[in-house]
What we know:
By secondary structure, chain A is α/β, with parallel strands linked by helices. The first copy, chain A, is built from 15 helices and eight strands. Chain A has helices at about 10-20, 35-40, 50-55, 70-85, 100-110, 125-130, 140-145, 145-150, 170-175, 185-210, 230-235, 245-255, 270-280, 285-300, 305-320; strands at about 1-5, 25-30, 45, 60-65, 90, 115-120, 130-135, 175-180.
Amino acid sequence: MRLAMIGLGRMGANIARRLMRGGHEVVAFNRDPAAVTQLAGEGAIGANSLEDVVAKLTAPRIFWVMLPAGAPTQDTVDKLMELSEPGDIIIDGGNSFYKDDIKCGAAARDKGLHYIDVGTSGGIWGLERGYCMMIGGDKEIVDLLDPIFDTLAPGYGSIVRTIGRDAPDSRAERGYIHAGPTGAGHFVKMVHNGIEYGLMQAYAEGFDILKGKSSERLEPDERFDINLTDVAEVWRRGSVISSWLLDLCAIGLARDPMLEQFTGQVSDSGEGRWTIDAAMEEAVPAYVLSAALFARYRSRVDHTFGDKLLSAMRFGFGGHVEMPQ
Amino acid sequence: MRLAMIGLGRMGANIARRLMRGGHEVVAFNRDPAAVTQLAGEGAIGANSLEDVVAKLTAPRIFWVMLPAGAPTQDTVDKLMELSEPGDIIIDGGNSFYKDDIKCGAAARDKGLHYIDVGTSGGIWGLERGYCMMIGGDKEIVDLLDPIFDTLAPGYGSIVRTIGRDAPDSRAERGYIHAGPTGAGHFVKMVHNGIEYGLMQAYAEGFDILKGKSSERLEPDERFDINLTDVAEVWRRGSVISSWLLDLCAIGLARDPMLEQFTGQVSDSGEGRWTIDAAMEEAVPAYVLSAALFARYRSRVDHTFGDKLLSAMRFGFGGHVEMPQ
Amino acid sequence: MRLAMIGLGRMGANIARRLMRGGHEVVAFNRDPAAVTQLAGEGAIGANSLEDVVAKLTAPRIFWVMLPAGAPTQDTVDKLMELSEPGDIIIDGGNSFYKDDIKCGAAARDKGLHYIDVGTSGGIWGLERGYCMMIGGDKEIVDLLDPIFDTLAPGYGSIVRTIGRDAPDSRAERGYIHAGPTGAGHFVKMVHNGIEYGLMQAYAEGFDILKGKSSERLEPDERFDINLTDVAEVWRRGSVISSWLLDLCAIGLARDPMLEQFTGQVSDSGEGRWTIDAAMEEAVPAYVLSAALFARYRSRVDHTFGDKLLSAMRFGFGGHVEMPQ
Amino acid sequence: MRLAMIGLGRMGANIARRLMRGGHEVVAFNRDPAAVTQLAGEGAIGANSLEDVVAKLTAPRIFWVMLPAGAPTQDTVDKLMELSEPGDIIIDGGNSFYKDDIKCGAAARDKGLHYIDVGTSGGIWGLERGYCMMIGGDKEIVDLLDPIFDTLAPGYGSIVRTIGRDAPDSRAERGYIHAGPTGAGHFVKMVHNGIEYGLMQAYAEGFDILKGKSSERLEPDERFDINLTDVAEVWRRGSVISSWLLDLCAIGLARDPMLEQFTGQVSDSGEGRWTIDAAMEEAVPAYVLSAALFARYRSRVDHTFGDKLLSAMRFGFGGHVEMPQ
């Protein structure tokens, strides 16, 4: 199929490449034209404006928007809605908030357009491994786009089949699902990222405890000096906690056993927060996912005002003066 | 009554003073003799060794040990057990681990001695306000010591009587209880301190959120610039969250609204940790109390190794490079 | 002053009573006229419709709306905006979401009206103790309404003055503050309630640990059988964790030591959730306040689907079959 | 090599089988002789008492103890120490507390014996996949036993090599490590299980949020009805959160999409608790791992006393009567 890829950052460019390798024609557009030139050199049809993108597609046009969530995505979707004709299809493949999708979907419907939200996991490894996709929108459009999703997905690969699985729809086993109506794709992807935060924090705390076992806080005869790089490696083999994130821990620790290149200030994107929002709307307890998010917040400040207030209270009742330790 | 006060730190000296004000005779001992001299000047009988303490008491001797938990208390109790005669009474008024009390109590019993554990709350305010005491040990000895506890406790004071309370034992209303057998006093005090951590952290987080409302992370029109000193003050008046700890927040904020004198590194003593230990032994979920303890741990390091591991994973899957913010 | 009280539930009726006791004239309105009749019998001017309320006030009219947050408050405020004349003042004294206040305030301004948000703490005790109030809105209107706030607030009472406090504005010490522009009152009240959740959960966990010490999970010689009613009482006296909420624990336990009248399913209103929302917007870690909220969510379900998924995983890797315990 | 397998439960029997497949001779013993008969039928040398086990081995004897942690393991190790001769080797392959290992190791050393602790992960899948092993003890003994560990471990298999790994010791890549001195093996395994709890809870909360999106708590137009079985499946393919535990979720959900066979009461073994103990000794914040443990505690009670105390406080300040919902 021919489709446009709008946004040629790390994710967008690689998605375009995987599509081209799969025999699709990609009209490539990016705000910075250097990325367009690059991708045109690899076989894409370069475009120099959204209008040009529109001109280089035929109805029903397919636009895959792969931009940062929020204003960049919203502004582009809005512009595409103006330039499109009834029957055209806008795919938001980024990390948009699912409630924004629902609004965009309604706006698109009003203009006779189709709007599809695709939550895409796979990171910089997706070009080779394929992308895991969670798709929201109308069934007939999701079906129409199937050749695209089929190309992007990992496929069966060498992954062992789930025991007991006996579902007529093979898409999940090939790496993509039609999660539900507009917004459902990004909703599932949002929870995916919420879980990701929790998993990452579980490993982080575990390795912290392993490392702490050599700390001077303990008596010398209570200490173990554990090789964390080897621990990460061995857990990849036959253990209950093997995972792709653990593979990444092993890579990171093999490269830099003390992780000295990192400051320890950890960013968060919207999904972790939105996942907690969803938990609160549903009255679902989310102790671990929220704690994982807060750990990132905490990592970005030296000391909280609250910490100082604790000291003020301790000074108040016990005359304790907190000293740097 | 005549009793010995062993350990004349902030707590021990004030307890001795309150006892003397109440008409008791105090034999005062401290490793550093300056404190003995000071207290002797206020009416106490100074002693220059534990042997001297023993000599200045008459059977049954009453020793109140008011020393830091762990080795200082344990060593003194051990020595007193050697110097004592059957029928003598050792009171541990510090913050000992209740399981250590149980061991000490058994050892004392083997020697015909009595061992009483007293959890004491009140801090530097206790001299004036009186001390809240949670007492463990044999009933007859607790009863024998009643004049001491009665003097130290706050008494009815001006505190409004609890609606519906109709208990024959008035001691709780006067500020002390016989909590149970040896160890029960410090167990209740331990949980008291565990709760204290949780309460303090709840205020800390709340004030952090009030303060964060003025942060540059928010858009200018989303910010409020709230006077935290006034908020602490007003909540003391008729609100659901008024408390003595809030009074201390109000004092601390009145003195230093930005709390600039504090680094934000917060110490913890053993009780918070032991409370979580107890919760785990009992299989009781203690989300809040553990989180309050961990907040203190976290306050004492710049960045955890775990935080860096999060960054290493993020770099691994997304090529994200975490930047100082 | 003359003002209208709209909404004569537990809070509204008592606020009206305290105002009348203070010499103010109250026009009382409620959807269910029985409450109007009741309050008219106590000296209020009854009204049988919002139109009637308007007619019984003189410009500038003062409307105090005391209704459940959300639709009940919003609908009434909307209606009052239609019926009012420029210069009239609408006070929302309920537990509205502060972002809704900001919208209402802007709408009021467009019509030449004044909108004031008052977060009110004190519960059913406020009639006697007075109400702690956190007020948002324009300074001149807050000043104009001062006689009302002054009457409702607890006043200095017998509360000890905060050491070191030296602020020109005495309102905080009398129990109310002008927290900032529209929305700031309810924002501060929201955080107040978030803290309240955290404080309550800290006590809840602590008493759970005390109670768990008698559980059959422990060996008989590890158990203590602690009198929780007495513990709550004694902590009211000179301890670091004395508070008004603890007073309520003491009352509850004195009345029903096993708390058998309660199922253990705990409701939450919006403030706890909004506080976490605010923390997430500000990137403030709120471990304790969120855990306190989640404990309530968890209390309302028998078992989570997530719990079952844990069992499914355990069965998957270890063949464990989870049995009722 | 010839060695004894003591304890032929699910784990012990399969470890024995994998050893025999690898050419080792196994003397098999179990309290219940049926398991011995079964394994003898598969080629093992049956033994009918620990004395018989000793008789059927030659010096230096190798005993692999594979029993539940605590008394069963301890009693057997104690007995073996009596029956052994200097130079014999006792391996504890179960889930013992690492501090118990340290005591056992010292006792063994006093008798001229060797004690090795092996943390073993792999569950009922280990027979086919191999076991991930974390080993503590003296280097020369660990080296001596290498043929055994080599057979039990998964080996390189088809797992992709860690990018950047360049370590001389290939054991980690083949699935086992010498973690350090006595106790270090079980310490690393303990943290492994602590992480396992955290990972499991992260998935549990995520799926709870997905499921909650269809709850009646939400307005009909806010709901999504998401196929959880398909979500688990698709996340196995190219997503950031793919893992072996997720594979197990997929299996469990494929078999029983509503997980109706499970009550939702989740057991915990010692390791989760000990991991938190270790975190507390090291002053490492472990928010997520502790919350994961507490979720299991909470799953095993209908309502906590603490929940009821929350209701009692709410009744106290607001007159709220909590109703079943």
